[in-house]
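Lab notebook, bench 4. Still working through the backlog of constructs that have no structural model yet. Next entry is a single chain of 500 residues. Request: give me the structure tokens for it.
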Amino acid sequence: MLEYDKNVKTTGFVPVRQSGVLIADPGGKLKLARWRLQSDGHRVHYVQDLSLAESIIRNEEIQIILFNVGGVDDLESLKTINNIKGASEILVVTPGTGHLKKIISAAGVKKVISRPIDYPQLSNAVRAELDNIKERKRKRYVFERFRKAITGPRVLYKNVLDQIKPGILIVDPSGKSTFINKQMSALLEIDLLNALEKPFDELLARSSCPFSGSLLDGLTKAFSLREDSFNSIVIEGPEDSKSWNIEAHPILAGRNEFIGAFVSAEVIAKPSKMDKGMAQSEQLAMVGQLASGAVHEIRNPLTSVRGFIQLLQNELQGTSKGEYINIIIAEIDRVNTIINEFLKLAKPVTPKRRDCNIKDLFEDIYILIESEAFLKNIDITKDFLETLSHIQIDSEQVKQVLINIIRNSFEAMPGGGTMFVRAFELPKEREVCLEISDTGEGMDEETVKKIFEPFFTTKDNGTGLGLAVSSEIMKSNGGRMEVESRLGGGTTTYLYFPYE
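Model written out:
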């Protein structure tokens, strides 16, 4: 078992008080997750022996349990952990098979992360769950402060509960409603005066609220079983969808005397484009800090290892062991490639922008890729406006972006296909657009949303940094990059460059 040292300086998100995270990893697949969550500032317990996991849950302050499920054999252990988890939240990591996810959901665990793990997404998921736990504690504290007021004259708490965002319904020990604030009254579409002193099951059963069933389930659990419940649901509307948090809690007086229960419903605000942009900036800053601190410590010994391996290569060339040497060198080179991508995000070079014609720039690259396209049975069709305005860019940096996009397109057409490249002007926006499309495998909507996130990749040997670097290069050159794709229908990338 490894515990995180509280004195170590970390990068990324650092809570005011270290949060306890238990990684239960019987298959040994989450060792990198331990390092990632430690670098985020969490106090991490890592075990592969699940009997130790049960002991830690009972004796340590654990907020998040990250449980690796490799197959159906691990489900019994998951059920055991779920039964003793207390106030902890469980995040399950699986290979991503739909059948396994259904079984896990049936076991009562709703939050599942698929492998291969997107580590920024993992950090965000843990952070979100910790925020949820913190918010629940805050609400419990607030409502406990109002407990005496709830059992006393209604005037002491009515004004307060009418001003908060969540809709609130409170019932007494007999199950009759004693208070409904304005927000809940509007949600249930019921009259306040007619609702008081009515049994809550009758009240909710006749409501036209689309999630009245979830309110009823939560309140029934709090009232009958004296248990807290939390639920998130999505309601589809004519123009948009809304997500709701629904919570229900028993109200206990001194010596755990049951004096009622309440249920609340609150809409979850969608993150704005600014919020998403800030999250992306935080991820890139984190990558930069990691790279700056670790790259030289990694590269120096790798250079030495590669040198000694090359000495052995001459002696073992032509033998069965010679193949292993070639594999080792190829893997070392791959690590160096990842390190170089790190550095491009960590210390981006200031572009040396000069006058350039995008058509001429692409022709320089076409000479390099023409033979590869022929070997892979890929046709390249070009369509450039004859008189394109010149743009101010660092041509070497933009070449790197184009090569990265073209390489992705080639890899998406393993059996051959067609790449279309055209350039045109948008006079109103005063931009030159270079459009690169292919007839490859394409991507679904969820994948397209994540392609610019550092470390996100769908390739077995990908670094997940190529498009993140490309996007940053476009921004530093005053341009922007957009991608459209459809699963089975190919991908189109648009590069926009401003001109004077």
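Notes after review: The first strand starts at residue 20 and ends at 24. Residues 273-316 form the longest helix (44 residues). Flag for follow-up if needed.
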